[in-house]
Amino acid sequence: MKADFKDIEEAYLKIRKSIRNKKKLYLFEKNYYSNCNMLVDKINSGNYTYSNYHIFTIIEKKKRLIMSSTLEDKIVNHVICKKILLPLDKYLIDSNCATRIGKGTSYARKLLDKYLVKIKNKSSTFYILKFDFSKYFYNINHKVLLNKLSKYLNNEDLLLIKDILNTTNNDYINNTITRLGMDTFYKKNTGLPIGNYTSQFLAVFYLNDLDRFIKEELGCKYYIRYMDDGIILDSNKERLKDILRILESIVNREYLLEFNNKTKIYKSTEGFTFLGINYKVKNNKISRRIVSKTRRRLLNKNIKYCFKYEK
Known about the structure:
By secondary structure, this protein is α+β, with helices and mostly antiparallel strands. It is built from 13 helices and 10 strands.
């Protein structure tokens, strides 16, 4: 990947809108052209090095870890995402919905509505396999991910991605997580930085081969994935049981991941929840209800910050 001044400026102008610390913006803009050109030179020469993350927690649905980058690191992440990762979007299946242009939760819910109408018109009772991964972002294996990316990227671009992934191997990260009272840690060469712009796409991409296997090899017409949440609709419960056994084996062996205890097969009449909406199909009618946790999040948009710790 080769970057130019326009790439840096475009990334900076996007990031600028969300930066709360105006002092950082002032210091960068004070020597704007030289700072932008310095980033161009470092990226193109392969000499860019990432700074330590500012690590803290927030309370949203629950206590969550955030790893905030420096302004320069954010800019480089945006450039890498735009020039290297986003072009890979064309290889993803349509029903892989999270954090993609033109998709998101609304698209996933509309797609599920479409699938529900189709399957209920064929079968009065059907079944839903919901699978969820255990600590997905923390358990994505760097070697597996880079191997999958190598099908599409050259060695130079792979090294840029590897440099970002390697930032999770620094000891200060787990030390800080301990001080913050969290109980989920990074294993060596495993996990994505929580909050990085590139991490969103890499997490979406990691299971792309699994998505294609489910759709193309297993022939699951009614399948949706939203990051680490997957859902398959089928009229045959035994078929879904077989599919779950197959997926558990592949997920453990090829992706070094595990499904968590939320993974289950539901009957359409008993109802199931997906992306904050509870669905139930009874007497050929689909009922939808926003679950209370989602309703509270919509009503309360202010996120409360917990104790912070900086290296």
